[in-house]
Amino acid sequence: MRTLIVHNLKSGFGSNAVFEFERALLRDGDEVTLRALPEEGGAREAVCDAEDFDLVVVSGGDGTVTNLLFELRDRDVLTCIFPSGTANLLFANLGSAPEPSAIAHACRLGRSVHTDLGVMRWTDEDGRPREHGFGIMAGTGFDAQLMRAAVPNKKSMGEAAYFAAALSNIHPDIIHFDITVDGRHYERDAIACIVANNAMIQGEIEVVPNSTMTDGKLDVILLETSDAVQLLRPIFAGMVDKSGNSVGRPYLEQFTGETIEVNSSKPIPMQTDGEVIPGLVSSYVAQVIPAANKLIVDPLSRYEPDDGGTEGFGGTETVAFPEI
Prior knowledge:
It holds the Pfam family YegS_C. This protein is α+β, with helices and mostly antiparallel strands and 324 residues long.
């Protein structure tokens, strides 16, 4: 078994656990190549020869992982996400066991699922066309402001940095959004317009119901409130009803489609999977990339494996996982 591990040394609290994973993964005769990402960029170069390996492991936070998955899109490369960041929401959405030895075990079993990605396209302030992939959520407005404000404290405070940022700006600007979803036109006033590939956040709370990364669609989520404190209501609703199918989500409106065009009444910040994009934007197009990546999952994942339970790479005992 030949494995490529691409790791962000600057990732969050779980950064060193990838080396424990590496020890659990290897068997006699295996080969492993470990590549550390540079301070900026480097994703494309790190996986340029991914097809030469049996398995590629992408290790870092959500931003790092998504950047690597975007470079691996439509290449049919068996890929494992290793959660080394602060929130690790993309891995959490898969629902696999997070322990390094459990992830190594899943890699040797080789079960996988094809998952979607999203891509944002816009023109920057210098008039240059830009694009950026996302695996969880991307958006403009209050969410991007929170990400920008949280950056200085993420290392020391972890996820709490986002809550501290929210409390520092409890009256965000109301923006007028002109939105087209697969040809259907909407106009709304909101503090943020978010496009989601999947919408489960911390605590296994679904921001909107029935959002998955295997349906070939994206979800548009509008935060329709003038007071950030009012966002506690959908959070509390999520604690009572994690799926969102019973209680619903007050102050949130949802649309679903494959291509989304968004124009805002003024230039505002943008974020993709927690990474703040430099400058401001006033319009963008988001599109889904169906079945873009082939991701390792274990039999307890919320996503059914698509390989029928093949023998994988061997070197592991058969485990009788309980039925979901």
